[in-house]
Amino acid sequence: MTKFSIINFFWRWLFAFLLVGLTYNPTEYSLYHWLSDALPNYSAITPVMAVSALLLLIGWVIYLRATVRSLGMVGTTLAVALVAALVWWAFDVGWLESGDSQILTWVGIVFISLVLGAGMSWSHIRRRLSGQLDVDDHDEDN
């Protein structure tokens, strides 16, 4: 059984960051930009684009499902609200300004990936904090 550690959380967050960032980021290197350039002409969509889109979709399903299962809808909503409050606080103390949309997009990508990383790690974190084990799936071989 995998125990919670900062390193394990970091890896889960890093994969979430890559998932979000590869889907959309303010540079021209994202699936969004790649497909939007090809969509006016559907014949320009290549098998590599389709495979890339499907792999990212699979990643989103895995991360979103794990986040909602481990945090629940209330916990996921609270995590998003906490992130929104942190962004608001960053604006309030002057760490962020509304003028630079690229920086704001990267902040959004980081915070979305933090929520997804926390969702992927929450069962481990909860077990570490409370000593309680989450068991959603059980073995049917009995």
From the structure above, extract its key features.
mainly alpha; 72% helix; flat; 142 residues; disordered C terminus
Helix/strand/pairing class, anyone?
A: mainly alpha
Report the end-to-end length measured between terminal Cα atoms. 21 Å
Q: Bin the helical content.
A: over 70%
Uncertain runs are 138-142
Total E-strand runs:
0
Number of domains: 1
Helix/strand order: HHHH
Q: How many DSSP H or I helices?
A: 4
Q: DSSP strand (E) fraction?
A: under 5%
Walkthrough of the structure:
The C terminus is likely disordered. The protein is built from four helices and no strands. The protein is flat and about 55 Å long. It has one domain. Helix 1 packs across helix 3, helix 1 packs antiparallel against helix 4 and helix 3 packs across helix 4. It starts with 5 loop residues before the first helix and ends in a 12-residue tail after the last helix. It has 142 residues and is an all-alpha fold. 72% of the residues lie in helices and 0% in strands.
Summary, kept brief:
With 142 residues, this protein is mainly α.
Spell out the blueprint of helices and strands.
Elements: H1 6-23, H2 31-38, H3 47-92, H4 101-130
